[in-house]
What does this fold into?
Amino acid sequence: MRALHCKTHSTSSEGNNFDVAATLLQEMRQYFCLQIKVVPRSFALRAKDFFYSYLLLDEMMCRRIEGNHMAKKKEFVEHITSQQEDFSRWYTDVIMNADMVDYSEIKGCMVIKPYGYGIWELIQKELDRRFKETGHKNAYFPMLIPESLLMKEAEHVEGFAPEVAWVTQGGGEPLQERLAIRPTSETIICSMYSKWVQSYRDLPLLLNQWCSVLRWEKTTRPFLRTSEFLWQEGHTVHETQEEAEEETMRMIHVYKEFAENVLAIPVIAGQKSEKEKFAGADHTYTMEAMMLDGRALQMGTSHNLGQNFAKGFDIQYLSREGKREYAWQTSWGVSTRMIGGIIMVHGDDRGLKLPPKVAPIQCMVIPVAAHKPGITQKARDLKDLLSAAGIRTEIDEREQSVGWKFNECELRGIPVRIEIGPKDLEQQQVVAVRRDTLEKKVLSWDALPEAIEKLLKDIHQNMFNMAKEYRDKKIYYARNFEEFKQGIEEGKGFVKAPWCGETDCELEIKAETGATTRCMPLDEHDTIKGVCVHCGKPAKKIMYFGKSY
It folds into this structure.
C-alpha cells in the first residue's frame, strides 16, 4: 500500500496526465475495497493517508483542469502541421486525422468516409431545397456519352478533350463507338432536350442532376481536385435570351446566399473573363472565396449557354407566333470542392471548424467522471433532449480519457461540446464550449435546447465575420503593376485593379506573377476609371486577380 501511495504522489507532483491518473484511480479503488473486506476495523487507521490521496486524485479527475487539458492538447496535435509551417501539409493532416477521407487504389480518386460524406449530405439537403423553391426538379441522365454526341459542340469538346476518359470495350467485346465517361452532361442532356422541347408550352424546362463526373486530372488533392468527384449540375431551357440570363443570374445568387448563410463563407460574385469562361458558354458567372493562405477557390459557377448547344443539338420550339425558334439555355453547378473550401476558410491548427448548418454532429455531450452515479444517465438524457429538438447531438461514452475526447471534438470541428460532471449534476447545469472561440459558458438544464440553438446561430455569424474580416484585409487595390506584384507576392491575397479585358494582357499577367483573373464583380461594372494596371490601355473592367487552387 505504501508503494502505491508513493506512486500516486510522485506521479501527481510531475503533473500526471489524465490516462495515468485514471489508471491509478482504478487501482486505488480496487485495492481500497479489497482491504476493507479483509481488515475492516484496523485498515481505517493504517490507510488514512492513502484514503486522503484517493480523495484528492478522485476530485482532480472530476474537475475540468484547463492546464492539464492544454498539456494534453499539445501532445495530441503534434501530428498536425501548423498552417504557418506548411499550409498544404496542414490541409492533408486535417482531412486525414479528422477521418473525412482516404486515398483509394485508383490514382486521383478519393474515398469519402462517413464524416466527410455527412457534410456533403447536408450540403445536398440545403441546396436541393433552394433548387426546388426556385422551380427546379431533379432527374438523372446516363454517365456514358457516345463520342458522336460529345463532338457536336466544337468549343465544348476542345475544352474537355484532355480530361475525358473513354470506354472502348464492353463485356469482352470492342465497342463500335467510344463512350466518354461524363466530364459534364451538357451533350447527353441536350440530346434528350431536342426530343422533349417542341413548343413554347414546354418551356421553361428546369432540371437538376445529382451525380459524379470524371475528369482525368494530372495533379489531385482530396475534395479540391480529384479525377472523380460528386456534384450537382442544373440544365435549363428558355424561350428568350433575357429569361436565360435571368436564370443564370438567379442561380449565382442562390449559390452566394448558400455559401454565406449556410457555409459561413464570404464570396465575391462576378463574371469570368472570356478566357476563363466555361467551354461552350456565352459567358460564365462565378463566386470566389479566399482561403487562409490567400489563394482563391472557385466555389461555384453559373453559365449562360446562349443558343450554342441548341443549334448543335437542334433544340427548337414552335414560338407563340408560330415560328420555329432555337431555345436559350443555362447550366450551373457546385461540387464536393465546397468541402475543401470549408476546411481552408475556417480551420486552424487544432483542426476543423465546421459551420453548424453542415456539421454532421452539432453538439457532443461528454460525461466527466462518468463512473460517478447519475453522470452518464444524465448525459444520455441531455443527448435525447437536444436530439428531440432537432439538434444533431451525440454522446461520447468511449473508454478514452476526457482530455482525449475534448481534443478529438476540436479536431473534428464539432461546433459545441457539452461537459457534464459531478458539480454540474449537483447544480443542474452543463458547461458548453464553442469550437470557434473555445469560450466556455455555463448553461442551465432549463431551456437548454433553446440556449444551444442560439449558441449555434452565434457561432455561424462569428465564423462568417472572422472569415470576412480576414478576406477584406487581404484585398489590395493596385493602381500600377508594381503595386499589383506587391499585393500578389508579398500580400498573398487578392488584387483588385482596372483591366483592359484583353486575353493577351491576361496571359502576360499570369506569366509574370502566377496570378489569374478571378472575376469582374457584379456590382462594379459601371464604375470603371483609369487605365489597365498592366498594359496601360483604357480600362474596361474592374477585375479581381489572385493565385488559385
The chain is about 40% helix and 25% strand. Residues 1-20, 31-76 have pLDDT under 50 and may be disordered.
